[in-house]
Each structure stands twice: as structure tokens, then as C-alpha cells.
Amino acid sequence: MPYKKLHIEIIDRVGSILMQSGSRFNKLSITTLRELKRAFGELEADPAVTVIVLSGYPGESFAVGADIAQMRDFGPAEGFAFAELGQSLFAQMEECGKPIIGALNGITMGGGCDLALACDIRLGSDALLFAHPGAKLGIITGFCGTQKLPRLVGKNFAREIFMTSDPYTAADGLRMGFINRLFPAASFWDDVVAFAGRIAAHPVEPLLYGKKIINASEDVELKSGCVMELGAFSSLFATEARAEKMQSFLNRKKNHGTR
């Protein structure tokens, strides 16, 4: 079934999900959320994909949040169902066995900010503007932003972002720790592809184990986390990719040493 709101492409083991709503602003409508769930499921299952990139490139926005016109007539039951759909998408992304890079090419507001938080790594264009403007609309986010943003940027910044509803720049995002890297808008997609390519060159197994254990570190105490790491570390010695990568490293070192 073709996608209405997304464009999917796979190049050199990088699967890209590009949100394209047909307008300047990518809204997280019910249809878009459902399509994102399907797209992530398909790319996770595809053996040709090692890393997934999510972006609104080449448009002006990453995602501007929920479709307010769609939400306007919600009652409590509809609001609950909508928030539950979004939360199920973000949980799926966090449980995905492949790294997900959020390429924040432009405006990233409200639910779009929460969508970015569900990504493992966030790369920002210098055209990035992000905000949580729910207070202006008489609501708060229902997509876990009140829980995840403080864990990423700290409570002080999170309170400021939620309470002011102000937009923040890419430089602010880098200072707060909201984004990992900042790239010029003119070269943004090339920089994103190069960054994703470096990850895609690695075997999928250590990426999966690393993601799972790092995510679990928030919920377990140190000794239990170290035991989890011990099990993952030792099990990787049974993989063919580990043997090949180590032998390749030794071969390069030997050849370099004989020059």
C-alpha cells in the first residue's frame, strides 16, 4: 500500500523516512502517525537497512506537532486515543532494533519535538526552531514530552521550554543538549547522509545491543546494568560479523606495519 504522507528510500544500508504532507508544515495527524508506525516496522524488518533516518527534508519543517484542526473537537476519549497512538509510535521507535537518527531540518514543534525525542540521535540544521507551545493552546503534550525532555535537557530547561512556549534556535538546542550535532542548512542533508553512513558501516548486532542496554540504563541500577552488558558483550563473540571485523582490523594493522 503506498504512503500518503511519507516518502521512503533505501540507499547504502540507510533507510530514510521523509515526512511530506504536501504543505510547508508536516502535521502529525492520525494518518501520519499510523503511516510512521508502518514505515518503522517495515524498515526494521528489512535486512538491507542498518540505520534509519527520519526527517522532513527538503521541506521547511521536521514536524510541527498535532493537526490542531483535527484535535479541536476532541473530547477526553478522543484525546486519550490520540495520545495513546502517539505514545505507541514512540515506544516502537525506542524498541526498534536499529538506530534512528532524527534529522531536524527545520521547524520542530510540540508533538514534533516529542517525535524527535524518540530518536536515538538528533542532528540539527541551523534552520532549526523547536518549541513546546501547548500552553498557548490550553493543553500540554500527551506524547511523553513532560517525562522525556527533562531526562534529556534537565528539569530547568524543560520547565522553561514548556512554560514559556517560546521557540528556541538550533544553537539553543545544542547548548541545552537537545541535539547532538549542528550542521549548516546548505549542506545539511549531505552531512546527515555522511553521518548515517558511518553508523551503517557497522554490523547491526552491536548497534542493537548498545541501543537496548543504553536505553535500559535509565531503569536499572549500576550493578544490574553491568551484568546486562556482560551478557551482551560475551554473546557478540558468537557472531560472524564480529570475527570478520576483528580479522579485517588485524589485517590492516599488519599491512600498515609492513610498509
UniProtKB/TrEMBL annotation:
Any single Pfam family the record assigns to this protein: ECH_1
Gene3D superfamilies assigned: 2-enoyl-CoA Hydratase, Chain A, domain 1
Membrane spanning stretches: none
Coiled coil: none
PANTHER family found in the cross-reference section: ENOYL-COA HYDRATASE, MITOCHONDRIAL, ENOYL-COA HYDRATASE-RELATED
Family the entry assigns: Belongs to the enoyl-CoA hydratase/isomerase family.
Protein name: Enoyl-CoA hydratase/isomerase family protein
Organism field: Geomobilimonas luticola
The organism's taxonomic lineage, starting at the top: Bacteria, Pseudomonadati, Thermodesulfobacteriota, Desulfuromonadia, Geobacterales
